[in-house]
Amino acid sequence: MSDAADPFAVLGLPARFDLTPAQIRRAYLAKAAATHPDAAGGAGGVDTAVLNGARETLEHPHARGEALLALLGGPSAAQDKSLPPGFLQAVMATRMEAAEDLENGGPAARERWRAWAAGKRAEHEARVAALFASGAEAATAIRVELNAWKYVERLIEQLDPAYDGPGDAGAA
After folding, report:
1. Is the torsion defined by CA of 17, 22, 24, 30 positive or negative?
2. Less crowded by CB within 10 Å, the N or C end of the chain?
3. Are residues 25 and 100 in the same domain?
């Protein structure tokens, strides 16, 4: 993986899942200041788009997990679509329940589902953090957890009242 494709290297951060938002922000600001053409004597340095992309990747825990797993040589989502046993059936049942509740429950139902999804996101994040802490040998288990987490992220997108279906750029 090239430095441009490695958001950790771009920002000069250790390749770890447990980075804090403050660490990411400090690294981004320091790198942006150091590579600014005025500060770097016109040398420029890291492309602004690459720098911003690295920051955006590392600020979002799911994307950070994907980037770290790639660095560790783990399987990509395209290579391994595995999910925990029974997960897909449970997600389908939850989506049906949510759709009915949202249709009949109005804004209060939307907030209940947002809270539920935020809790599920936190559970996945904690499991991924624990798996990364256990070492690279957990790559397959990390992939399964990231795949499941993606379903929760998708539900969170769809709970946005401005969401307008697949491909909606405003729902991210």
Report:
1. negative
2. C
3. no
Domain that holds residue 16: 1-59
Tokens 């279906």: give the residue.
Answer: 165
φ, ψ of residue 14 to 5 degrees: the values are -65, 145
Q: For residues 28 and 89, state if they share a domain.
A: no
CA nearest neighbour of 19 among 63, 52, 50: 63
This prediction's pTM? 0.85
Name the amino acid, one letter, at 1: M
What is the separation of C-alpha 81 from the centre of its chain, rounded to a whole number of angstroms?
17
**Sequence-separated (6 or more) residues with CB below 8 Å from residue 172:** 157
Which letter does DSSP use for residue 165 in this model? S
pLDDT tens-digit readout, 147-166:
999 999 998 888 877 765 54
Looking at the structure, tell me whether residues 119 and 48 fall in a common domain: no
Tokens 């391994």 correspond to what residue?
80
